[in-house]
Design brief:
The structure is a single chain. By secondary structure, this protein is α/β, with parallel strands linked by helices. It has one domain: Aldolase class I (TIM Barrel, Alpha-Beta Barrel), CATH 3.20.20.70. It is built from eleven helices and eleven strands. Strands 1, 2, 3, 4, 5, 6, 7, 8, 9, 10 and 11 form an eleven-stranded mixed β-sheet that branches. The two termini are about 35 Å apart. Bound molecules: ligand PBG and zinc ion (ZN). Ligand PBG binds next to helix 6.
Length: about 325
């Protein structure tokens, strides 16, 4: 106790702080989410996410060069669908789809980059929900699982290393693991968006992806932020269904959940530092109300402290600028 013990001596100089401080995760732990569009030579800046763009595959491959050079571990692909949308979201498993076509090109250019794909239907359904609607207008869970399995298979066929189902349907991990194994994709990993909350922080992403539900919201499938036990059961179930990686999403408002999931499981746990978390810091910095570098560093350290093994973040391509 004071005065024999003086805590400030442990942080007196930059060198001492450096010695005792936790370090930022290396770039290999970071995953950059990217928005793919069809065609060529397309780069459309996303207004709600300054610094991020919708890109065609050729542009993405160009933009990936400095990202890969920094040692970023992987990318998470989201496809934007220009074609017909239907109740089922059948465009999502089209072998000619943007994601399916881009994967082999990306793998060819960067064989060591881990390519992950978001497996969902909302960018492909006419109504914008994450699964087909039944005759009463409710998302049909089991029909959604069948569709999601087909989507995951199409991504694995194209060469995805990791498929990441984000629809929050019951049994989706089991359906996907089954179909992958049936087709001998036993090495394809499944990263479950396991505790994904019905959050207000997805707004900028929905602008980017055009995936806003036409009617209603996602509260019937994404988990409630006011019921943390149910959110924890979601991750437990996904582990039992065969997920290789769990995920908590969003990150910064859910550090308690992240810590609990980390403690309850021995699986790797990813965190998704979502679009609203990204836009929030940029908006604050733009108004001169906070230093961007400091806020980015502090927020990523918070995710690390809470136990994230993998960090899915729009800051990933700027790793050297923020974390080196
Ligand atoms: C689609 C999906 C969403 C995000 C990732 N996958 C949006 C949603 O659920 O509405 C959000 C990502 C972000 O905000 O950065 N299922
Ligand atoms: Zn969705």
């Amino acid at each position: 106790m004071f005065p024999e013990v003086r805590l400030r001596r442990l942080r007196r100089t930059p060198e001492l702080r450096k010695m005792f401080d936790l370090t930022f995760p290396p770039p290999a732990k970071f995953i950059w989410p990217v928005f793919l569009v069809g065609g060529t030579n397309r780069k459309e800046p996303i207004a709600s996410m300054p610094g991020q763009s919708r890109m065609s595959a050729d542009v993405l491959i160009r933009e990936l060069e400095p990202v890969v050079a920094q040692g970023i571990g992987g990318i998470l692909l989201f496809g934007q669908h220009d074609g017909e949308k239907d109740n089922q979201g059948s465009g999502a498993y089209d072998p000619q789809g943007v994601v399916q076509q881009a994967i082999p090109l990306i793998k060819k250019a960067y064989p060591k980059l881990i390519v992950m794909t978001d497996v969902c239907l909302c960018a492909y359904t006419s109504h914008g929900h994450c699964g087909p609607l039944d005759m009463h207008g409710n998302v049909d869970n089991d029909a959604a699982c069948e569709m999601l399995a087909k989507v995951a298979l199409s991504h694995a066929n194209a060469g995805a290393d990791v498929v990441a189902p984000s629809a929050m349907m019951d049994g989706q991990i089991l359906s996907i693991r089954d179909i992958l194994d049936e087709h001998n994709f036993t090495d394809t990993l499944v990263m479950a968006y396991s505790s994904k909350f019905a959050s207000n922080l997805y707004g900028p992403f929905r602008d980017a992806e055009n995936s806003q539900p036409g009617q209603g919201d996602r509260k019937g499938y994404q988990t409630s932020y006011a019921n943390y036990r149910l959110a924890l059961r979601e991750s437990e179930f996904d582990e039992e269904e065969g997920a290789d990686i769990l995920m908590v999403k969003p990150g910064l408002f859910y550090l308690d959940i992240l810590q609990k999931v980390r403690e309850a499981s021995d699986l790797p746990v990813a965190v998704y530092n979502v679009s609203g978390e990204y836009a929030m810091l940029i908006a604050t910095a733009e108004r001169g109300w906070g230093d961007l570098h400091g806020m980015v560093q502090e927020s990523i350290m918070a995710l690390t402290r809470a136990g994230a093994d993998l960090i899915i973040s729009y800051w990933a391509p700027r790793y050297n600028e923020f974390f080196k």
